[in-house]
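Blinded run. Sample ID left blank on purpose so nobody reads anything into the name before looking at the predicted structure. Input follows.
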Amino acid sequence: MRIYKSLALMALFITLAASGIALMLKAAVGVGAFDAATQSLSLVTGIRIGTIAMILNLSFVAGQWIILKKDFGFRHMLQIPLSILLGTMVNFFYYDFFGTLAVESYILSLIMYVVALVLVSFSTGIVMAIDLVTFPIESLCMSLAEIIPFKFGTLRQLFDVLSVVLSVVLTLIYGLAPSIREGTVIGMLIFGPLMGFFINKAQPILKKTGVVEKVRA
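Blinded prediction complete.
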């Protein structure tokens, strides 16, 4: 029973995270490193943003399968439906639900971005607190850290740097609207602390309601 409750909550908050990501993209004041790369690739290829994210996340899962082999288990497999759901819902919210949304005011765009960032950090924090599955890019970095002499934090930061470089290169070559802007800096400063705050607040509630068995330190 607990696993079904956890899966349902995870799906709900992944959907909420997707709505927040779509709003951040609509605000057009810059996005996080990974989203900047997916947005730039989408503009160049014509493939929808959520689909690009889905392809990249599934490739990260495939990388884990290659590295881990027989140690690739149920928690890793769950990243496949997570990636598909997240990509599908980003497409739905960005192109359909918020398809006609256009904010002309710069101040309103910034406000919308910050509200969306809080929503994404909250939703991601709940998914992390449920502790049923890890997001593909983080899980790939964990797997790589077991076979190469780099720590998880260094590898995760490297992925962000590569994402930013890719976005900037594509922007310069194809003359795209920049995805790395002030919103990117805001996200770098407050996303991590906000997510940590929500994880700490959510864990006791999830334990009390029987969604998780124990709270991780």
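Unblinding after everyone has recorded impressions. The radius of gyration is 17 Å.
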